[in-house]
Design brief:
The complex is a heterodimer. By secondary structure, chain A is an alpha/beta fold. Chain A contains 7 helices and 12 strands. In chain B, helix 4 (107-117) crosses helix 5, helix 4 (107-117) packs parallel to helix 6 (153-165) and helix 5 packs across helix 6 (153-165). Classes of the chains: A alpha/beta, B alpha/beta. Chains A and B meet through helix 5 of A and helix 2, helix 4 and helix 5 of B.
């Protein structure tokens, strides 16, 4: 890599967004951290990618990124998917920050639909891309009413939804975007992460920030905050289990993706977290392919 | 009983220039069934919605007394308190079941909603309660997982009633509970209501334009016309010896009431 590739592109402000916008977003983030789980509205900007591809996440990342940060971007756990590669490139170009695929090395990790398998540490920040920040949205279409339900801590409706799941399927069948109660107060959406990742939210040493670009909301779970997944006393919360190990690295403790390998019904189960899988196998990701 | 459950004084409700209710005052006593009759547009349903906490009146006070507590003004208490009372102390059975039920939630979920709102977090207990209440309102407990849309009109009405009674309320507001039902179903629903009212010592306010229903169910009757209460008294008294010209017209226009 030539030295010039590390320099930010001259036509952009540091980390793409202008300073006023970043200031506005930081204010929203500070408020969100002060009220764990509460959705703070912010003036979401148009970003150079479509809504639903992580516009909220990259605005949060742009606002918190510093020159010394090391950025990792994952999409469904993988570092090498189109979305992850492009967002990582955007910040490598406009902020000149160092990027990595190693969870342990990163200071800021932007993620879509997963939390890395490697436990996060103090000082790391995980930025989630959120499509629908309001956990009650499909149960109560009126925004004014959901605001009121949050204000009055009136969350019986979500349990009606879980009751229906048990009545229909015999168990709580919801497997992703599983509703959580943050700091025993606000009902929140963990973004569409599998419920397998929900226990990692509880008392996480890392700061967890959630950005929803289209819905213009930011919320946060500060480090070491209690996060409870909703359930019934006689139908407790549980996570997915697999009766096999990762076909590549042999891990039995990670979230597995089913990969179809041919058109004759063969398939394999592999870790969805590509960095975790590679580090277990002792190989290194071909990082140079990025730039 | 020395004090009423509900005390209403000088209630006005205006919609723009239309006065839907004018200077309505009433007391509701524990275990009493109060009927409100009158023609279409006389303000019956508006009055009921004001009483049940759904619609803030333009003037006047509505005070509710929780068990052994003081009187509290329904619209001056905090919203959290009002919502709490609305889903524990009273409930409204809507004329159209679609307004009172969650149509995308099964019968069991509908009945269990108030329990879950009150903090019940045991699926087995919620389900057992739902079964018991479905049975009590003469719905087949085997249909607990059916959606309300699969129920007939009369069954939907009974489901609405079960959904409210599950929280052991002290007041039930009924808005035309027999409207749109055929005569035999009406009779069964009335039987059921009468039994529940006596068994659970409920106070009931029932809005109807069917004087037969009023005669069968209610202890006391209020006749409304153009937003005002024109006559009030014991049901038999009002129906057998109406004083106001409009009440006389109303009674005389019904065959065999």
């Amino acid at each position: 890599m030539s030295p010039s590739a590390r320099l930010p592109a001259q036509s952009f402000n540091f980390a793409y967004l202008d300073e006023q916008t970043k200031k506005m977003i930081r204010r929203a983030i500070l408020k969100a951290v002060a009220i764990p789980g509460h959705q703070v509205p912010f003036a979401s900007r148009e970003m150079p990618l479509p809504y639903g591809w992580g516009t909220g996440g990259i605005q949060v990342t742009a606002a918190i990124l510093g020159k010394d940060d090391v950025l990792k971007v994952i999409d469904q756990g993988a570092d090498d998917t189109t979305n992850a590669v492009n967002i990582r490139r955007l910040f490598a170009k406009t902020a000149g920050v160092r990027t990595t695929t190693r969870t342990a090395e990163a200071t800021v990790i932007q993620t879509r639909h997963r939390i890395p398998e490697l436990p996060l540490k103090d000082g790391q920040i995980l930025v989630f891309q959120v499509p629908i920040p309001e956990p009650l949205r499909w149960l109560e279409p009126k925004e004014a009413e959901t605001l009121k339900l949050h204000a009055l801590e009136d969350y019986g409706l979500m349990h009606v939804h879980l009751y229906e799941d048990i009545a229909t399927h015999g168990r709580i069948a919801r497997s992703y975007d599983y509703p959580i109660l943050v700091h025993d107060r606000y009902l929140s959406s963990p973004s569409p992460i599998p419920k397998f990742d929900n226990p990692k939210l509880d008392r996480s040493p890392a700061l967890l920030l959630f950005g929803a670009g289209r819905e213009k909301r930011i919320y946060a779970i500060p480090p070491y905050t209690r996060v409870k997944s909703l359930d019934f006393d006689d139908h407790p919360f549980s996570v997915q289990r697999w009766d096999r190990a990762c076909a590549l690295c042999g891990a039995r403790d990670s979230f597995l993706d089913e990969v179809v390998t041919d058109d004759r019904g063969n398939r394999m189960f592999v870790c969805s977290d590509s960095d975790y899988c590679e580090s277990r196998r002792g190989t290194t990701a071909p990082e140079a392919a990025d730039d | 009983m020395t004090e009423p459950l509900l005390r209403v004084r000088g209630l006005d409700k205006n919609f723009g220039r239309v006065a839907a209710c004018r200077a309505v005052s009433l007391d509701l006593w524990p275990g009493e069934v109060l009927g409100i009759v009158g023609e279409s547009g006389s303000g019956k349903t508006t009055l009921l919605r004001c009483l049940s906490g759904e619609l803030e009146p333009s003037a006047g006070t509505i005070e509710f007394r929780a068990a052994e507590g003081p009187f509290e003004d329904v619209y001056r208490m905090g919203e959290a308190r009002r919502r709490f009372l609305m889903r524990t102390q009273w409930g409204i059975v809507h004329q159209n079941p679609r307004d009172g039920l969650r149509m995308r939630v099964s019968a069991g979920g509908n009945v269990g909603e108030r329990l879950m709102a009150a903090g019940e977090r045991h699926y087995g207990r919620i389900r057992a309660e739902a079964v018991a209440w479905l049975d009590r309102v003469e719905l087949d407990p085997a249909r607990i997982d059916d959606l309300p849309a699969l129920f007939s009109g009369g069954m939907q009405q009974r489901l609405q009633i079960a959904r409210i009674l599950v929280s052991r309320p002290r007041i039930v507001y009924l808005d035309e509970p027999t409207g749109g039902l055929d005569v035999s179903i009406q009779a069964r629903l009335l039987d059921l209501l009468r039994r529940l009212v006596r068994d659970l010592a409920l106070a009931v306010v029932i809005v109807t334009h069917d004087l037969g229903v009023a005669r069968l169910l209610t202890d006391r009757l209020m006749v409304m016309r153009r937003g005002e209460v024109v006559e009030e008294g014991l049901t038999d008294q009002v129906l057998d010896d109406p004083h106001h010209a409009y009440s006389q017209l109303l009674v005389s226009s019904v065959i065999g009431a």
